[in-house]
TrEMBL record:
All copies of domain DUF1707, residue ranges: 8-60
Source organism: Streptomyces resistomycificus
Region annotation Disordered: where it falls in the sequence: 63-82, 209-265
Name this protein carries in UniProt: DUF1707 domain-containing protein
Pfam families given in the database record: DUF1707
Domain of life: Bacteria
InterPro entries hit by this protein: DUF1707_SHOCT-like
Biased composition (Basic and acidic residues): 209-226, 248-265
Amino acid sequence: MTEDAPELRASDADRERVAEILQDALAEGRLDMEEFEERLDATYKARTYGELTPITRDLPAAAGAAPAPRVSMTKEPAGSGSWAGRIVGGEGTSTWAVAVMSGFQRRGRWTVPRRFNCFAFWGGGEIDLREANFAAGEVEINCIAIMGGMQVIVPPGVEVVVRGIGVMGGFDQREEGVPGDPGAPRVIVTGFAFWGGVGVERKLTRAERQQLKEERRQQKLDRGTSARELGQSFREDVRDAHRRMHDGHRDLMRERRDRRRDGDH
């Protein structure tokens, strides 16, 4: 985390990254449920980096296990939008998730591993890839849903392949077959659903939706401006025509008066 600027305000995405680490720690047995709930409550109440930092600092790696991931609160520059910049290699920041009569989320800025395994029993989960990086050009999301459900959210441009099996349940096939962008990752959704379901949907991020909304608003404003300009031009044309008619009528009346005057003489 950012140690040299503890007074800086944390964002919702920062709090979500800490919450993901706590969820992993709970699943790995590093925290019991009471500790998890206390720290999760503190996470969502935190307003600064300084308040977030201690929450994950005392999660040492177990013997022989990989060290607990550290959360970087340093704001990184936004990418150029190229898919090549989002396929970063490595092992991924989270490789599995479990929900038993509860729920889990993976969203925000995280790295999707080559294979992500998740399990839900009487619970649910959300795997959001819209702002994620990818450890490889092809990743697998393996979902086991028993009387539960999961939702996989992918950004536009990503190719989706669905290979899951459902028994009194099912896997959403609607996004399959949509061609991906050149260089974009390929997401394969596999697994098994019994009395449950795995949904797959393609959505823009909140920032992209806001940008699209702003563009549409600007287009409406531009159309409104054009309509006003057209209306103004029409009104001016009508006024000019009316003025010409009035001038013509005045000239005609003057000419008639002149003729009568000449007749009298």
